[in-house]
Structure formats: structure tokens, C-alpha cells
Amino acid sequence: MINSLSGRLLILTTIFVMLAEVLIFVPSIARFREEYMLNRLERAQIASLALLAEEMIDPALEDELLRNAEVFNVVLRRDEARQLMLSSPLPEPISATYDLRDASAATLIRDAMLRLFRPANDVIRVIGAPVREAGLLIEVTMESAPMRTAMIDYGIRILALSAVISVITAFLLFLAMRALLLKPIKGVVGHMQRYARAPEDARRIILPSASVTELREAEEALKTLQTELTQALKQKERLAQLGAAVSKISHDLRNILTSAQLFTDRIEASEDPAVKRMAPKLVGSITRAVHLCESTLAFGKAEEPGPTLTMVRLAELVEDVIDGERLAVDSAQISFRTEIPADMLIRADPEQIYRVLANLIRNARQAIATSGSTGEVSLRGGEDEAAWHIDVSDTGPGLPPRAREHLFTPFQGGTRKGGTGLGLVIAAELVRGHGGSLDLLETGEDGTRFRILLPKGDGTL
Prior knowledge:
56% helix
């Protein structure tokens, strides 16, 4: 109970209400002390009326009047004349004088607290104004102990009443907070627990219904979070199913391509010059397709191998990629240009870098083809002491904002209708496997440029 939010709320409410009652208690005690002394002044004034009626009274009667008024002496000032009306012997000298005629609230509170915490029975003088304007002032002397006792009794009653009020107030406030806040919070927690049991079920997403603004905002945020999580889980499930399907297709396709390799061996033996020229490229393409299928199968088993690094002549590798792309384009619309030193060697996996370049060049020429205008795809290679760099650029229309935002996100970075958006994702992953990076350097109306950076030395840039 104490560790629950409702229990702590009940305890804190009781404490704060008690604190408020204590703050009320202090001025209440001061007011009670003032009323006590005013009452003694009024009693003393009534007692002095007997003397005004008869100039001489019996000493026994005077003593009885003083005892009933609970004072030792009564001094009444009338017509500028100060007159001792009633008197009796003082048990000790007067220790303090209090003038109630112009005392401020702060003074009354201070004097009341000092008296409450002073147990000594002092003789004090109290000065006040007579009731009904029966003189200029009235002054009495009295003991402080009876007044202090009365103050303590009054304080105990006030504290007891405050405790009862605090408990009742805290309980009512607790019921109100439970209905307005705690119950809706428990409802949100219940929604979260039900959603956690089956996050893929869109029916379990919370429907905001709270009337409290802050709680309604929390429900809206939770709804957004649950909606995005449910979509992500569904996409993850689809990707898992797609991976399984691709693995099966790649397995069968690998077998078909293996058979095709056997036929290409015979084609190579042909005496036709054109066949002799095209056969090696056909063999190379089929070999790469077989390797791709094998890599896909390995990836589906979460066992994709790292790159096999060798020194590769970049110009020859780029020429193979461009030869394959030329077959798919109209040479009158799209041209290819390379600026790569013939003796430039890079340390890389030739099959993986071929795939990286093929994806980038294919995206570039498709961007130009989509625009409907002529253009150029260019490749430039260079190196410095730290790394090799390969720039792939085009004169296409540039990447749209959405493609830039999700450039390396699977299924979201595509720019063509029907595209999957996987080309750049695969390329970036393969380059990272070499310890390098694939970055978009610029894109706009004048075209797009990507840079492949491959590190030298220990693989750090």
C-alpha cells in the first residue's frame, strides 16, 4: 500500500493538510491569548463598577471581585485621572507589560509563542481599552500560568480537530484523484500489458480517451509508438518470409546456372569470331550469378562470409561492368566515361566490388533514362596515402528528398516506380565489409555523385 501511487498520494495529502492546519494553529493560539486577556479586562471593568456605585466596599467583597476576575489589581483611567479601583497584594514583581490597544498581529503571535513555551508562573500587566467607552484605559495585573494552561488546552483541541479534518480531506482528495487520475493511469497500464502479449495485433493498439490533457497526450504518444512498432514487426515478419523465399529461389537458380555453365564451355569452342568475343563475358556473368546465389544462401543462414581481399586492377573491373551495362542502354542517349589510371590497383574482393559498381552505375543510367534526356555516367579513380577512392557520377535529375532521407534504408530509398531500394543498401554493406564507406557527395539538377572509399593499411580511414 505504501509503495503504491495511491498510498503515497494519501500519505502526502494528509501531511500537507496537517501542515496547513499547523500554519493556521499559530495565529489561532495568538488570537485565543488575546481574547483571554481581553476577557480578564472586561471582568475587571465589571468588578470596578461596584466601587463606582459605592465609594467604600467591604474588603471581603473586594477580594471576591478580584478572584472572580482572576486579577490582582484593577486600574481605571477616567477623565485623565488614573485611579486604583481594586487591589490585592502581588505575589512577586511584575515581569512584563502587554498593551492590547495597538498590538500588531506579528507582536501578538510572537508574545503568544513565547508564553506557550515559558512554563514559569509570572505576574504580568495587561492594558486595554474599556468596553463601551467607559474610560480611557483599563489596566490589570494577573498570573500567566492559568492563561498558559488555557492556551495548551485550546491548542490540543485545535490539533485534534485539525487531525480529523486532515484525514477527512485527504480521504476525499484521494477518492477524487483515484477517479480522475489513478484509474485512467491503471487503464493505460492495462492497455500496455495487453499490447505486450500480442504486439502484432493492431486491435490491441490503445484508443486515446482520457479527459485529462496530460494523460491524453501520453495516450496519443503511446498510440503512435504502438502503431510504429506494430508496423515494424509486420515488416520484419515480411522480410523474414521474403528471406526464406529468396533462399529457396537462389538455391534452385544456382542449380540452373550451374547447368548453364556447362553449355558455355562448349560455346567457347566455337570458331565464330563474334561468339569467341562474347563467350568469355557470358561465362563471367553466369559465374557471378552463381556466386551471388551462393552468397544469398549464406546470408539466409546468417553466415555471409567476409570479403576475400586481393589486389585488383580497377580499370579492368570497371570495363567489365560498363560492357554489361552498355548492352542494356541506347548508346545515343547514355554514354559512359572512365578516368581511371591503367595501373591502379586496389585491395578488394573483385566479386563484391563488381556488385557495388554495378549497382551504382545501374542506378545512374536508370536515373538518366527516367528523365528522358541524354546524359553521361562517369567513373573516376584515385588514391592517397590513406585510401583509394572511386567516384561514380551522372548528369541525371538528382535524388528526390524522400530518397535522400532514406538513402540506405531497405525498401524505402528507391527512386524508380517498382524499385526495391535495395541496390544502395547492398552496395553500402559490401563496402563496409571492406572497412570503407559509401557516401553521397552531391545531388541536384546537375546530377549525382557517390564516392567509394577503401582504406589502405590496417583498414582504418
